[in-house]
Amino acid sequence: MNESLQKKIIIAQRNELTESVIYRELARRTKDSRNRQVLERIAQEEEAHALFWASLSKQEVAPKRLRVVLYVALAKIFGITFGIKFMESKENAAQNVYAAIREVSPQIEQIINDEERHEHELMQLINEERLAYVSSIVLGLNDALVELTGALAGFTLALQNARLIAVVGLITGIAASMSMAASEYLATKHESAAENSAKSPLKASIYTGSAYVVTVIILILPYLLFDDFVVSFLFVVANALAIIFLFTFYVCVAKELSFKKRFFEMAGLSTGIAAVNFLIGLGIRTVFGVDV
Questions:
Q1: What is the domain partition of the chain in residue ranges?
Q2: Into which CATH architecture does domain 3-123 fall?
Q3: pTM (whole model) above 0.85
Q4: What letter would DSSP give residue 102?
Q5: Is the distance from CB of 191 to CB of 199 less than 8 angstroms?
Q6: For residue 149, which of 229, 224, 240 has the smallest C-alpha distance?
């Protein structure tokens, strides 16, 4: 076995061992017994793969501890499904390593098949509440971003007073969040009755309302921190784009969707409506002679 091939086998061995440790850590930390069993099964398979690579490399390796800490932290913050799928999305390089050393043993083909098929199937078994209600979170975020960003654009031009804009924006945002939560409650209740869905209308409304309120606070905050209403609005736009980027990234990783199309679609919608409302605010100020 040449030196280059030996290095690739050691890389594969360390990757499998590291993933085995990650899955075991996630299994240890999860409270759901079904999810724990799934994670432990994946950990066992990864460990078996690592032992196979060790039989070829004839060396002992240590897992990448920093990588273990990173992915366990991501799973703790954003959920197990996000953590696992984000980790798996970074494994293309490992697949290339496996493909490069197929000729070493016929078992490698089976390992590649396991990596591509079986783990994916196991991950589909993981049940996580936040993903079941992701549509409710998206509803709250989308509406808050589109409606409040547009409203703040109009308020900024019409009122031109940072504190006053913050007060009006908070009143508008909180009222809208309660309205959205109530609408989601009724919609989910109707959907559950019609389709025999297990989703709780109360939980759906809480997720929607909470996502809306959090978004409102983030968007309003610049008007409370800065006296200049123009600077405040620029931060509103930046905050809105940051929220869109982060949440779109989360959903696309967790649901295995295309990121670019969804990000630009949502960003374009929010900024476009903000621009229209900016002009409306200017028109209202001019027509009614508002001077605050």
A1: 3-123, 129-288
A2: Up-down Bundle (1.20)
A3: no
A4: G
A5: yes
A6: 240
